[in-house]
Amino acid sequence: MKVTVERAQLLKSLGHVHRVVERRNTIPILANVLIRAERAKLSLKATDLDLEVNETIAAEVSPAGAITVPAHMFYDIVRKLPEGSQIVVEATGDRGILTIRAGRSRFTLQTLPESDFPDLNAGDMTHSFKLQAAELKKMIDKTQFAISTEETRYYLNGIYLHTANSAKGETLRAVATDGHRLAQFEIPLPSGAAGMPGVIVPRKTVGEVQRLIESSDQEIAIELSTSKIRFTIGDVVLTSKLIDGTFPDYGPVIPLNNSKILQVDKSEFEHAVDRVSTVSSERGRAVKLALTGGKLTLSVNNPDSGSATEEIEVEYDADPIDIGFNSRYLLDIASQIESETAVLKLADPGSPTLIQDKEGGNALYVLMPMRV
After folding, report:
1. How many Å separate Cα 197 from the centre of its chain?
2. DSSP category for residue 303
3. Alpha helices by DSSP H, 144-257
4. Which is a Gene Ontology cellular component entry for this protein (predicted)?
5. Is 114 exposed, middle or buried (0-12, 13-18, 19+ CB in 10 A)?
6. 53-71 burial string, b = 16+ CB within 10 Å, else e?
7. pTM over 0.85
8. Mean predicted confidence (pLDDT) in 164-182
9. Domain identity same for 359 and 303
10. Are residues 333 and 228 part of one domain?
């Protein structure tokens, strides 16, 4: 196998695929990237057995062939080669060596045979549809922060993608929760998605899809079944296993009749929470919201370091209420609010609070209170 390829192209492609490869592997072949050269094309593929990324780029090929090399080392070599250089990648015979040449630089890497490389067989995909990259990125951005990192509750370690009926008609809805907060975002149901199974897309897959979206104008093809999902983003094909579990019935968690309505300037509120939480304990991060009339007092009391209070003017004409929240969670949600005004719908100090843009929009957030 001999391939001549531009450094910029190869570096970009390796940048996409090498991220999938875990730094520590008990199975040697999983530390490698599969290089396959044929018909003026060079394809690169990496996998961790749950997620597979494949990209094809143009190259001069003569003769064709396939081999696997250590992914992170190959990426680092290409990254450090001079900009604008032509790279020649060559594997000869059965010596198990790959040679990389560019200008006066020459590297040799140990290889493993193509036959050892696992294939994440996707099987038949039952549903397929297309989304604009901007739509898919927004779905991820608005919900990703609420994905649970608690491995014992593995069924919460991803975004639940499913069809739903709402006041706006049929929608494609993304939901994530860690038990303390919930994020939901929906868009009109795309053609081809009707009847699709509800699937839980793993956190790592979600992150890779987000990184692969480089232009908001591109169209992304999504195919899925009950066990796998595939995203085609330009020349990159990402195939992933889905989380094998049942996402909890989140409907009852979303409060529908919270009658205490607080409207607050989003930016002012966000900065005030950030300021007072400076003295909060790393473990608790609790901030207290005291509402009376058109006044909101934020306070933090940390016996180990001190206390802080700040007062801001708000729109609120319900009964006075004192309620506590985790300041980090509150800031995460506030950062997702797009309008100038955030709306918090409260019930009592022990019940979940609903947070939305003033205009409503396609996103909603639920935050569980803390005892303060």
Report:
1. 20
2. T
3. 203-212
4. DNA polymerase III complex
5. middle
6. bbbebebebeeebbbbbbb
7. yes
8. 93
9. yes
10. no
> Does one domain contain both 62 and 132?
no
Burial of 41 (0-12, 13-18, 19+ CB in 10 A): middle
The confidence band for 167, taking pLDDT boundaries of 50, 70 and 90, is confident
Number of compact structural domains in the chain: 3
Same domain? For 194 and 237 the reply is yes
Range of the domain at 327: 254-367
Encoded tokens for 20? 């999938």
Per-residue pLDDT tens digits for 108-128: 999 999 999 998 876 789 999
Question: Residues with Cβ < 8 Å from 100, sequence gap 6 or more?
Answer: 74, 77, 78, 87, 88, 89, 106, 107, 108, 109
Query: What DSSP assignment string belongs to 30-47?
Result: GGEEEEEEETTEEEEEEE
- 267 with 207, same domain: the answer is no
189 inside domain: yes
DSSP-H helix ranges across 89-219:
133-143, 203-212
**3-state class of 9 per DSSP?**
helix
